[in-house]
Amino acid sequence: MSKTETSTHHSLQFARHLHPTPLPADQRAALLKNPGFGRVFSDHMVTVRYHESQGWHDAKIEPRAPIPMDPASAVLHYAQEIFEGLKAYRTADGGATLFRPEENARRFQQSAERLAMPVLPEKVFLEACDLLVNTDRAWIPDGDGSLYLRPFMFANEIFLGVKPSSDYLFLVIASSVGAYFKTDAPAVSVWVSTEYTRAAPGGTGAAKCGGNYAASLLAQSEATRHGCDQVVFLDAVEQRWVEELGGMNVFFVFDDGSLSTPPLGGTILPGITRSSLITLAKDKGIEVREERYSIDQWRADAGTGRLREAFACGTAAVVTPIGTVRSKDGEFKIGNGGSGARTEELKAALVGIQRGRAADTHGWIHKVF
Ligand code: PLP
Ligand code: COI
């Protein structure tokens, strides 16, 4: 049996130290009115420790608080850190659900393997998420909002030698969120980075590790400086093939109604939204190709009208139309520069399932309570 399989059935008892003074309801309601993304946090957090001599231990839920840390903690020097992102939704019957959390648990295990970290049992990942959503259920916003869970793990050995840490901390925190993009525009604009790349073959592009995001920030700042909402990365070898955005995958919609998206080849993140949209499109009889698409072809197809729509997708961004593509070579618009029918159709299908308004034909919905 592989390490992952052995650990899948592993379970832990979580100790409960509930907050003696959670935020009063009126203050919480004020924060939930317009939470934005990633600034409003719930009352609790889950923590689980790992030591190579003890395995996973000391699982608990406790009041959210700063983590005391030694300045020689390995993560502060060598960035051995991974994370996940998934959302809890409020259902019409007052319950709460998660969307395909097992996929996040598995991707977390794959990220851990790539970063030479211990593999957290899937069951512990799921129990930690459920426990936090259950405890902080009052923090799930109504309407279009959701409670964004951020599971993460970092190396915590006090040692400056370069090697995998012997000590780790796994946590889950929760943030009440609305839309990821602040813009009121019907579509976002993207900047194609021709100077910086995000991930090279053999690198960590397919892992959800903090280092990938650190490496994307300068290109993202360049995008912002050019008035764009997000950066688009090209492949590191030929600087030609569209890979993904700084924090989301990308899809293209053609005049025959078909879709294409860059293939998973180890340099892009295997998005759960990406995989769900491929399935939903195929359910509708829409052709989906996982194939390479060059920036030159993108520009040419937008010019002739062969390309009708493009959109970004991810947990935070859901499905967000791309209207304008800018680079040092100039700019082009996609379609009318706003959203399109195919993008809206796929978004509605996905959000319908996530929000419990459409039948969950693939068993993607995990009920928390
Ligand atoms: N690509 C990157 C770099 C991301 O950070 C994300 C967000 O998690 C995605 C793609 C989309 O992944 P998912 O749909 O699983 O959220
Ligand atoms: C997500 O969609 O969960 C992401 O990780 C994107 C970004 C917030 C990093």
In short:
With 369 residues, this protein is α+β, with helices and mostly antiparallel strands. Helix content is 27%, strand content 29%.
Question: Which features would summarize this protein structure in a list?
Answer:
disordered N terminus, D-amino Acid Aminotransferase, Chain A, domain 2, alpha+beta, globular, 369 residues, binds pyridoxal-5'-phosphate, 10-stranded mixed beta sheet, 2 domains, 19 strands
Describe this structure in words.
- There is one protein chain.
- This protein is an alpha+beta fold.
- The protein has 2 domains: 4-177, 2-Layer Sandwich (D-amino Acid Aminotransferase, Chain A, domain 1); 188-354, D-amino Acid Aminotransferase, Chain A, domain 2.
- Helix content is 27%, strand content 29%.
- The chain contains 9 helices and 19 strands.
- Strands 1, 2, 3, 4, 5, 6, 7, 8, 9 and 19 form a 10-stranded mixed β-sheet that branches. Strands 10, 11, 12, 13, 14, 15, 16, 17 and 18 form a 9-stranded mixed β-sheet that branches.
- Helix 7 (272-283) crosses helix 9.
- The longest helix is centred in the middle third of the chain and has 16 residues, at 210-225.
- The radius of gyration is 21 Å and the shape is globular.
- It starts with a helix and ends with a strand.
- Residues 1-8 have low confidence and may be disordered.
- The chain binds pyridoxal-5'-phosphate (PLP) and 2-OXO-4-methylpentanoic acid (COI).
